């Protein structure tokens, strides 16, 4: 999820802690709970510091080690202990560690619902895991938790705690519905394309809108589902093999993308100077006319790598919303 949503989830999570008598009666402890929850709700994304070492390093490691199971305990232990020390609430350190742990785990679980995925099973598995059920920013969840957070500013502790608990109960029901809905859409897609070899369905920004990509014997089929309407977008044939494709595999950008991609696709074109440009992408992330997440490698006529780049080529508000 996006940073704003994660922080809102942390704010409403801290409101539930007001059910604890000590938190409700002690303003200092209450403030420490809010701090631990907010920091914990964002902590896994501290790996954004990898941007300092280049875009490829960031894309390779984002949602990796910092979101893994061992990191849950490291983040929550450090955040809880430091918050307790800073607030002078060492007697409640276990409570603050628990709040931070819940915030960290919730962060990772929401990232898991997104199409981009997360390596939360590391070190046991390096697979990118994703449920493909929620967009990077879910408008309904954002408004729900924003409303609860605003109401918490002016409410009494008991009202705040019940408001926040209600928002989380609604969240659990909503996410469960989205997961179930996604599975139904996947079944629809597979029934339509009887000879599918692989299929992926990603959510649109609004309810009942989904993007699909299906691999068949002849290539890939992409399109959108809006309620009961099928809106095919493009048929993408398998690209011809060429020596430039094999040469491009040496590029760091390509290795990074291939280590992440679930359904890689490569295309190439000859340049007027005798060189080649090879483009690798993950077929799951498409929008009409292009694949915005891609690695592009330029080679000379001797198959030497001249230039390479990796990244997203789209605005935040443009599909796909991952």
Automatic annotation (TrEMBL):
Keywords: Hydrolase, Membrane, Transmembrane, Transmembrane helix
Pfam families documented for this protein: YdjM
Highest rank taxon of the organism: Bacteria
GO molecular function, one term: hydrolase activity
Transmembrane feature ranges: 65-87, 93-112, 160-180
InterPro entries reported in the protein's UniProt record: Transcription_regulator, YdjM-like
PANTHER family listed in its UniProt record: HYPOTHETICAL MEMBRANE SPANNING PROTEIN, MEMBRANE-BOUND METAL-DEPENDENT HYDROLASE
Protein name: Metal-dependent hydrolase
């Amino acid at each position: 999820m996006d940073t704003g949503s994660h922080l809102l989830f942390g704010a409403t999570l801290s409101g539930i802690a007001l059910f604890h008598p000590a938190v409700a009666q002690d303003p200092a402890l209450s403030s420490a709970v809010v701090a631990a929850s907010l920091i914990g709700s964002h902590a896994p994304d501290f790996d954004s510091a990898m941007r300092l070492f280049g875009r490829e390093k960031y894309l390779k490691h984002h949602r990796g080690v910092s979101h893994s199971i061992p990191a849950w305990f490291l983040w929550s232990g450090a955040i809880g202990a430091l918050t307790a020390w800073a607030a002078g609430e060492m007697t409640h350190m276990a409570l603050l560690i628990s709040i931070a742990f819940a915030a960290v785990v919730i962060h990772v679980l929401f990232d898991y619902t997104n199409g981009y995925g997360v390596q939360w099973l590391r070190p046991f598995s390096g697979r990118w895991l994703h449920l493909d059920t929620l967009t990077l920013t879910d408008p309904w969840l954002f408004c729900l938790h924003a409303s609860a957070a605003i109401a918490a500013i002016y409410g009494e502790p008991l009202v705040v705690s019940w408001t926040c608990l209600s928002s989380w109960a609604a969240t659990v029901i909503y996410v469960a519905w989205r997961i179930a809905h996604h599975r139904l859409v996947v079944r629809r897609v597979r029934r339509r394309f009887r000879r599918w070899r692989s299929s992926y369905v990603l959510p649109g920004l609004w309810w009942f809108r989904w993007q699909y990509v299906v691999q068949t014997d002849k290539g890939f089929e992409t399109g959108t589902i809006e309620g009961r309407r099928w809106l095919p977008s493009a048929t993408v044939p398998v690209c011809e093999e060429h020596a430039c494709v094999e040469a491009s595999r040496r590029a760091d950008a390509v290795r990074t993308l291939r280590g992440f991609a679930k359904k890689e696709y490569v295309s190439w074109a000859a340049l007027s100077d005798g060189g080649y440009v090879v483009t690798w992408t993950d077929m799951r992330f498409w929008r009409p006319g292009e694949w915005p997440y891609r690695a592009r490698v330029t080679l000379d006529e001797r198959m030497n790598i001249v230039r390479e780049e990796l990244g997203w080529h789209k605005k935040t508000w443009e599909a796909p919303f991952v």
